[in-house]
Amino acid sequence: MENLVESLKEQLKEKGYKLTTQRRIILDVILENQGKHLSPEEIYEKVRGKFPEIGLATVYRTLQLFEELNIIYKLNFNDGCSRYELNTNNGDHQHHHLICLNCGKVIEVQLDLLEALEEEIEKSREFKIVDHNLKFFGYCKDCKK
Ligand SMILES: [Zn+2]
Ligand SMILES: [Zn+2]
Ligand SMILES: [Zn+2]
Questions:
Q1: Out of 89-93, 94-98, 102-106, which region has the weakest mean confidence (pLDDT)?
Q2: Distance 89 CA to ligand 2 centre (A)
Q3: Which residues bind Fe cation (predicted)?
């Protein structure tokens, strides 16, 4: 965890940015909520609990900056808002998301399982695959009944 903060600090410095208190708190909230796919508004609510003076615009701007630096990436689960997730893949492909159409729960699948398909595409289309963004829609264990 501290390593990640250190590497973020370095990345920010390289681009001429500082890890200000506000940025640090926003990062902390994202770190504390890994796997939760928070929307900017949800992040704002949590950040405000630690830093009441912060404005929503600052949170939006910071998220945009983190996205540009590839620290987080934006997800869209077709529920009308964008969500953010920490970019923990060091060159690995993104994990998949299962989205429940009934309760809206998002479940992560950490296994890639697409190697055969990727190989086939790379061969037949002469296309180099570097990542993918896969969503499965359906019903979770609780809603399936
Ligand atoms: Zn995820
Ligand atoms: Zn893959
Ligand atoms: Zn469900």
A1: 89-93
A2: 11
A3: 115, 132
- pLDDT of 107 reads 94
Pairing of strands 96-100, 106-109: antiparallel
The number of the ligand nearest the C-alpha atom of 35 reads: 1
The CATH number of the structural domain formed by 2-86 is 1.10.10.10
Ligand nearest to the CA of 141: 3
* CATH 2.60.40.1180 for the 96-138 domain, yes or no: no
Pair of tokens at residue 115: 């190697």
pLDDT score recorded for residue 59: 97
Between CA 76 and CA 78 the distance in angstroms is 6
Of 72, 76, 88, 85, which Cα lies nearest the Cα of 137?
76
Binding residues: 100, 103, 115, 132, 140, 143
Q: What are the sequence ranges of the domains in the chain?
A: 2-86, 96-138
Helix (H, G, I), strand (E, B) or coil at 10: helix
Q: Is the pLDDT of residue 43 over 70?
A: yes
CA dihedral 82, 76, 15, 8 (to 10 degrees): 90
